[in-house]
Specification:
By secondary structure, this protein is an alpha/beta fold. It has a single domain, classed as Rossmann fold. It is about 45% helix and about 15% strand. The protein has 8 helices and 7 strands; from the N terminus they run E-H-E-H-E-H-E-H-E-H-E-H-H-H-E. Strands 3-2-1-4-5-6-7 form a 7-stranded parallel β-sheet, sandwiched between helices. Helix 1 packs across helix 8, helix 3 runs parallel beside helix 4 and helix 4 runs parallel beside helix 5. The longest helix has 29 residues. The chain is globular, with a radius of gyration of 17 Å. The chain starts with 13 loop residues before the first strand and ends in a 7-residue tail after the last strand. It binds nicotinamide-adenine-dinucleotide (NAD).
Amino acid sequence: MLAHKDLLNLTGKTAIVTGGAKGIGYGISYRLAEAGANVLIADMDEATAQKSAEELVAKGWSAKSLKVDVSLEADIKNMISTAVSSFGSIDILVNNAGIYPNQPIAVMETADFEKVLHVNLLSVFMTTKHASEIMKKKGGGKIINVTSIDALHPSMVGLAHYDSSKHGLWGFTKNAALELSKDNITVNAVAPGGIATPGASAGSGSLSAEQMKAAIAAFLAKIPMHRMGESDEIGKVVLFLASDMASYMTGSQIVADGGALLS
Ligand SMILES: NC(=O)c1ccc[n+]([C@@H]2O[C@H](COP(=O)([O-])OP(=O)(O)OC[C@H]3O[C@@H](n4cnc5c(N)ncnc54)[C@H](O)[C@@H]3O)[C@@H](O)[C@H]2O)c1
């Protein structure tokens, strides 16, 4: 049995965080690096990923950045081999990269729907397939998927493709947990509610920044805790799932939403 002080210690572990350059992904990268993990920030925004990794290294922690588009299998294979060549193995995979362009069905094109499914769901099949091969050789690992309350209940109009991808990701999480438990690999999810991030405050899809602000204000009014969440509040849940604290958990989804699903 681990001592209390060691329960959240990730020293010597290697973690990949997709979309780790900013927003929720950076909150996750920060907490995992602080806990002692070597963190590979894998993000298509190369400049921000590099800056974020430098911030973590400046604190005396271990981090590196890599330009990765998670919708491309070649980039994913390169991400896996970079983690192994830089840090020796992969113990923790956090599938966080995701997009949520607001597009009502009336204006949504087939290509829009496909893009959201590709980035939010198909990518996780590809990262899980390739990372789990490495984890099996190591004797185990932890995979954590960032879903959304939209994996359970729609938050607003205009996200039919997004809600399909996140419901799908929750289904994938459970089946992957079932398949990989024999290899000592756990697969869990965290479902954030409204979190204040660059993506959530920018205009998206058919909504301008002003319209997005109004949509968020309407959503905020329904949150029992009366505030948006911080990226760190998802980072802390991921740290829990990545640590020995969650040793008997697989196929679970933790909702962190300030009570939003209650309203
Ligand atoms: N912010 C919220 O309120 C909220 C709520 C529920 C779930 N989520 C989920 O949390 C995750 C992160 O959201 P966020 O709000 O921090 O977003 P964000 O837009 O603020 O940051 C996302 C990061 O992912 C990167 N990214 C996007 N597409 C990528 C791709 N194809 N390949 C690699 N990197 C890519 C971006 O460059 C960016 O650094 C997403 O999966 C999102 O669905 C967010």
